[in-house]
Amino acid sequence: MERIIKISLALIIIVFAGIRCADYPIDEDGLLITERAECYVSNFELLGPDFQTVRTKAAVIDTTAQTINVEVFWGTDLKRLWPQFSLVTDAKLDPKITTWVDFSNLTTPKQWTVIAGNRKVQKTYTVYVTVQTKP
Question: Which overall architecture, per CATH, does domain 25-131 show?
Answer without folding.
Answer: Sandwich (2.60)
